[in-house]
Amino acid sequence: MSVDTLTRAAGIGRNSYFTKLRGERCFNTEEIDAIANALGLDPFIILTKAANPSEDMDDLIHRMLADPERYHLAANFDEFKENERESDDFGA
């Protein structure tokens, strides 16, 4: 996905996006959520990456796409499926 497509889908101006990427301003939680939704990700993935910047983003994206359930990609997230899995683990 191109930056232009991402910023349009997230409703964030291109200049604002790059200003925030450079660390001159901060992303707010609504913007993080909008970016995650545009990418089909759980916002937690973005927050985790921000907290652990040593990891290569391209590598992370490839691993997430290879194993979407592990990374709880939004398109694959189903809270009822998760609840069923937990109850199966405990024999309920």
Keyword list:
mainly alpha; globular; 0% strand; disordered C terminus; 92 residues; single chain
Structural description of this entry:
The structure is a single chain. With 92 residues, the protein is mostly helical. Helices cover 62% and strands 0% of the residues. Helix 1 crosses helix 3 and helix 3 packs across helix 4. The radius of gyration is 15 Å and the shape is globular.
Q: Layout of helices and strands, plus pairs?
A:
Elements: H1 3-10, H2 14-21, H3 29-39, H4 43-51, H5 57-66, H6 79-89
Helix pairs in contact: 1-3, 3-4
In short:
Helices cover 62% and strands 0% of the residues.
Strand content: under 5%
* SSE order: HHHHHH
Percent of residues in helices:
55-70%
The DSSP helix count reads: 6
- Rg: 15 Å
Distance between the termini: 42 Å
Let me know the largest β-sheet: none
Number of strands: 0
Alpha-beta classification: mainly alpha
